[in-house]
Design brief:
This protein has one domain: Ribonuclease Z/Hydroxyacylglutathione hydrolase-like (Metallo-beta-lactamase, Chain A). 21% of the residues lie in helices and 30% in strands. It has 8 helices and 18 strands. It has helices at 34-38, 79-85, 103-106, 126-132, 135-138, 143-147, 149-153, 221-238, and strands spanning 5-8, 11-17, 22-23, 50-51, 55-61, 64-68, 95-97, 110-111, 114-115, 121-125, 157-160, 166-168, 171-175, 184-190, 193-197, 241-243, 252-258, 261-266. It is globular. The structure holds zinc ion (ZN). The site of zinc ion has 5 residues, from helix 3. The site of zinc ion (ZN) has 5 residues, from helix 3.
Amino acid sequence: MAGHSVTVGSVELVSVSDGFPIRSPLMPFPDTSLEQWREFPGMVDDNDQVSSRYGSLVVRSGGKLILIDTGLQAADGILLEDLKNKGVNREEIDLVVFTHLHPDHVGWNLVGGKPTFPKARYLVPQKDWDYWTDPIVMQNAEHIPSQVLPLQDLNILDLFDEDEYRITDELTTVHTPGHTPGHISIIVSSAGERAYILGDVAHNIAQAHYTDWSPIFDSDPDLARVTRHEVLDMLEAEGTLVSAGHFPDPGFGRFIRASGRRQWQGI
Ligand SMILES: [Zn+2]
């Protein structure tokens, strides 16, 4: 699948998706205007809708096969098919790592009560676990008892501290809170090359320019905004290769400065 995989030193990143929802951009971003969305060439269709993506990432690093996030598992979800199409056998996945515990990131953990990735340990950021397993929060988060808690009962779930957890020698987490309390990004560093797995620090490429925009999914919009400015400023200054789950397929690219604006340049 040309275009869906990149190498960073000796690490391979393969982009996979669970689907491509289409909706009004004013749903996730109610404080914005359609005029602003129309500034971006090709962003809105004739019905003023915007396409998004439920993206996951397969990473080959240090002899391990790793899946970052597991999609939504809507009725028309395509993650398992997409893994197969891109040559990934779900039964060989060693680790599943979550950037955070939103429903569109934990969807395919289990099918019919059985782990979809039977060999894998599932790694959950501690602060997201603490937040989402609060009984009051769980009342409005049905995906936690259905797709996350069973992993603990099956004894295949491990918690990790958000900052600087080493998944492998080449993959290190960094705490990027705001979207959720325990949200993480992942730094890939191998043979002098680097990449950054963004998670949901940004939800749409429009936030490259409108970095203050917070989607309704940010649990702490002010903190999310601070985190987003810091991370995007750094990625732009360093020209780092980025993988972003909700950005247009395959979600690889860089933040660049052109025509006086920060922009997303997909590759
Ligand atoms: Zn998301």
